[in-house]
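Q: Is it fine to ask for two folds in a single conversation?
A: Yes, each is treated on its own. Send the first.
Q: Here.
A: Result:
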Amino acid sequence: MIQAGAAIVDITPTPGLSMSGFAARSLPATGAHGALTARAVVIGDTAVVVADVIGIDAAMSARIRERCLLPAENVVVAALHNHGGPVSMAGRLSLAADPAYLERLEDACVAAIDMAAAARRPAMITAGQGSDPGIARNRRHPGGPVDASLPLLRIRDEDGNMIAVVTAYACHPVVLAADNLLWTADYPHFVRAALEEAYPGAIALFMTGCAGDANTGHSAHASITLSANPDRTYEAAERIGRKVAEAALSASEIPVLARTVARNGTVELAFERREKEEPDVLEKRWRDEIVTADPARRSLLSYWADWAKDIAPLTPAPLLARVTVLDWGGVLFVALPGEIFAETALSIGAAIGAERPAFVVGFADDNPGYIPPASEFRHGGYEVDEAHRYYGLPMTFAPGSAEALAACAIALATGD
């Protein structure tokens, strides 16, 4: 047996704070559909905490890891990446963050880890692979690759009571669109609810996989609207979430060894400018277009024009990205920063060839934006050519960045 524990801390903001995730949405939240949470699972002396926010930057992640009771190198701080939460990263995603909320978020993540550590008790862990729920779609290429893996850990105490269930799926939590003004964890809320209904008393931890190019079937540009969409409702989110949970619960149970190992690496990511025109030319063009644009596009163009004026002229230093692999008794948990594409996750899964199900997740320990594989640059599009503006970066990450992250993860996972 191994010591394991889990905990939940409420991080639901009050109404009135700005919401993060859609450039088209300018109004603040009017209420909450459900609680937003920070959830932690501790296994041995390793931990994963997931907060229901769009991202947690590297600086906050480092502080959380240093402040909690466990060794900093053994902890992963991840974001759910729901687009129905508050602004959670200072200087990113075009809206000002509330300093008091950022402090609350950080404290909550530390508290969740420490509470889960304090709740540790002898436990048995099993792992299995759920069936493909058939939900995720490649939003850049019809019929393109998706990571359909759906691993499930079941963590029980020595009396057989379920402590926690842990799963991950690579599909953007963007069932709800820019017209939604309620705090929500999107479809993962319903995944967790269904898992907790199946195992009363358990805490469900859902992690978003490498979903940079995957959602339920719409393009990124389809979200530049404030119009309601009958396919993007809470009813749809519940249907999708429960389908994912049902598929996860089909997972078999393979006993996991009572040991944990944490390995970390750092990758230097360079940048490359994609825009062919000078920033002042772009700013003028976008400000001219604002005059006749519809409200949703006007909001987007305003962000872009401000970016061209204040951020585009800068030359960024390479970004140091953290990669972590936790080995939970033979179950590998690979944590990558930012918005990672399916191609990268699939390459890691194929290379590590784990006998037990593996977790390969994004949005971990930083969310600086999209990190596309080299094969995607020739296709351009929002994720390659535009999203860095919304993230507050002067340039996009250079080709080869995703491959460097994957190489680091594979080396950590295989011990090479």
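Q: Second one now.
A: Result:
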Amino acid sequence: MNLFKKIFSSEKKETLDKGLEKTKTSFFSKLSKAVAGKSKVDDEVLDNLEEVLVSSDVGVNTTLKIIERIEERVSKDKYLGTDELNRILREEIAGLLSETNIGEATDFSIPSDKKPYVIMVVGVNGVGKTTTIGKLAYQFKKQGKKVVLGAADTFRAAAIDQLQVWADRVEVPIVKQQMGSDPASVAFDTLKSAVNQDADVVIIDTAGRLHNKVNLMNELTKVKRVMQKVVDDAPHDVLLVLDGSTGQNAFEQAKQFTKATEVTSLAVTKLDGTAKGGVVIGISDQFRIPVKYIGVGEGIEDLQVFNKYEFVDSFFK
């Protein structure tokens, strides 16, 4: 079966194609330079390709895996032409992603046996955390789900205000307290309110401070523990939001947050404004945590469920 012969929603696919335009243009201009004047894939081409992948923010470890796989194919077929490199790269990257996103989401669905389904959102300030929460709330509401937001990032007044703006825009209830309140107390009140309202989904925003990992760890552990007094297995998903435009910095943030708390899924935002979209490939491979969502535009519909085949198809189109 050709994994790429899937029927994609044309509108969604167009947005994805457009969102990855800068990454693709940058990648292929580097790739064409890497193979210029070469007709077959040799050691020099592979060295150049390695440089292209690393400079496209795929990450060193993931790049080495991809190069290794291509080397294996070259050793089997001594006369592998550079004109075939696109196809081979596409196949190997898709293969690599297939090994990681176990239980990949296909839509904005939630398990029917968890009610309310509790998502705790983590990530540093400025990565698009609040926007991701708002867009997620919109998608769940569109499915007829009852959504409640919790403003547990009480460290910044702006975070509470931004979440309120999204709650108003999507027309979903929000539970908040004053700036400086105990985040765990806000999470507790949010879950209580959600249970009373028979809500389907609860999305809790949390503070994004990384300057002191021990404090962050303690805070997130406390928030989880307090939530479990209301919903005993909450949170059901700990979603880490990363800014794709920061490239290698997103790797570092993922490393820090996965040490501070158990992260169960990832959202990579701002891919439309950057040439660093290769970071999705590296993060997906290195952390073995499913990339659930990607942000490919400003619009409310532009948070997409990550589909590895669509992504690779858009990347190599």
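Q: Anything structural to flag on that second result?
A: Two points. The chain is about 50% helix and 15% strand. Residues 1-7 have pLDDT under 50 and may be disordered.
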